[in-house]
Every structure is written in structure tokens, then in C-alpha cells.
Design goal:
mainly beta; binds fe (ii) ion; metal-binding; CDO_1; Jelly Rolls; about 160 residues; dioxygenase; three-stranded antiparallel β-sheet; iron
Length: about 160
Amino acid sequence: MPATALRLDHLAIARQFASAPEDWVVPPRFDPVERWYHRLAATEDHEVWLLTWLPGQQTDLHDHGGSAGAFHVFSGTLTEDTVNGPAHAPRVVTRDLGEGAGRRFGTHHVHRIVNRGVDPAISVHVYGPALTTMTRYRLSPAGLQVLTVDRAGAQW
Ligand SMILES: [Fe+2]
């Protein structure tokens, strides 16, 4: 099989990092003002991020600029709202992911992650290839609308 046919299992990578917190380059911190995140690793075909979530902290709806990926809940419980369907008539699917749960996502995935629990949460995220842009969206009566396009190195 040619090497290009091999696909990385981003969730397996996330789980591998989650299984060895003693190897994380920084310990996780919680920031009540701004959601805390830190890049744990980067290779030519993927990158690994550590994120923390105090109760109530969340992302906006966003995509991953053409990267695929996965995330794994190291501790706490996170809720993922995924937007499916056409942009003019989106449907939102909500899932709770507890400690040890994880999800893979493809290159067109639009979601929002929220800590709706009462305990802080920690998660490990893998993106392949590394994120270069993320488009942020909002849901309006007219459908999914673009808010901003953020670029790596400028907005995060
Ligand atoms: Fe995401």
C-alpha cells in the first residue's frame, strides 16, 4: 500500500497523549478570563493541543479550515453541538462526552464545544494537518452565517 493511502488515526493519537499526562510539556491551567489552551506537539502532518474548560466556558461554532481531527475528554464532561445539513437549513445535534470519551471529525465538521457541567474539564485535541484557519459561525434565522476567519499565528 502506498504511504499516501495510510490515514492517521487522530483519536488514537489524542488517547495516546491523554494516557501520559506526565509527559505534557506544560501542566493544564484554568483561566476564568480566557479559555486556556497550549500546543503539546506538532509534526508535519498533525498537531496536538491541550485545552481546559471551566464550567460555562465554550467555543463559538467553528470549522477547522480543512483539517480533520479528533478530541478526547481527559476529565470532566464536555458537550458538543454539531451542525449538520445545508447552511441555509442547519440541524444541530448535541452530544455529551464524559471522561474517556472522544470523537473523530472530518474536514467539513462544524461544531461548538461547551462545558455545561459543574466541574472543570480537560481535553486533548488533534488536528491533521495542523490548523491554518478556523472560520467562526453563528446560527441565525437565515441559517449558518460566517462571523470571522481566524488565522494561526494571528488569532491563536
Ligand atoms: Fe473544533
